[in-house]
Design brief:
Elements (H helix, E strand, L loop, with lengths): L6 E4 L6 H12 L2 E4 H9 L3 H24 L5 E4 L8 H10 L1 E6 L2 H8 L13 H19 L2 E4 L5 H11 L2 H6 L1
Helix pairs in contact: 1-7, 2-3, 5-6
Amino acid sequence: MSKSNNIFLVGPMGAGKTSVGRQLAKAIHCEFFDSDSEIEARTGVNIPTIFDIEGEAGFRKREQQVIDELSQYEGIVLATGGGAILTAENRDYLKQRGTVVYLAASVEQLFKRTRRDRNRPLLQTENPRQRITELLELRDPLYRETADIILDTDGHNVRWVVDRILEKMPTEYRARH
């Protein structure tokens, strides 16, 4: 399986993985998947409900199964959940089966993008900005360890991010699309 066949987007919630992933897939004529949406479709309930019933551990187990399956497809763009990289197996699947792009963003930008979203169970706290800071401190090293490409999305629109990803892809990949 060629590493350049798939593009996997990682990064914190609110970094733009789904928006960028959809546009990127359209630009390169690939199928787009979002691991969180796939989990919701398979369970018939939203992510907060899964967290309520199974806890974060139950959700992470489902997430690992979905990422294992989807990352074995050929020629896809996959947006992963913000915590997908917490599982060592997920990091291995992504690194071995595609080009991993880390969409980085500042705490302030992530807070602005997520502050009204009630579908993010980890941010349903008295101080979501502090929670974002804590999550980023824990996860940033894992995103960086997993990524082939790192892009800062602060202050940039989706089209700009998609264009930068395409510029940074291996030449043989760009030649095919």
